[in-house]
């Protein structure tokens, strides 16, 4: 099972990492906090203080097409916000 899918690089996540040394990742839906902590520490070589997880619901999407009105949802995903020890940081672009 691949635990880490990708880092989340939004404006909100970037502000969180600059302000409070917290980094955001999209993770496997079945992964727990212990598995997420171990995977990030192994991949990036950092010390993690805390892991917070949440399941983000998909947004409702709709559009008009030639065939008529089409509606659906974007998929839901699990997000993990990890807090690192003071003085440590993750460089997404060097490791990936």
Automatic annotation (TrEMBL):
GO cellular component terms given for this protein: ribonucleoprotein complex; ribosome
Domain of life: Bacteria
Similarity section: Belongs to the universal ribosomal protein uL23 family.
Gene3D superfamilies with a match to the protein in the record: 3.30.70.330
Protein name listed in UniProt: Large ribosomal subunit protein uL23
Keywords: Ribonucleoprotein, Ribosomal protein, RNA-binding, rRNA-binding
Lineage: Bacteria, Pseudomonadati, Bacteroidota, Sphingobacteriia, Sphingobacteriales
Record bears the keyword Translocase: no
Protein encoded by which gene: rplW
Organism for this UniProt entry: Pedobacter zeae
GO molecular function: rRNA binding; structural constituent of ribosome
Function: One of the early assembly proteins it binds 23S rRNA. One of the proteins that surrounds the polypeptide exit tunnel on the outside of the ribosome. Forms the main docking site for trigger factor binding to the ribosome.
Subunit structure: Part of the 50S ribosomal subunit. Contacts protein L29, and trigger factor when it is bound to the ribosome.
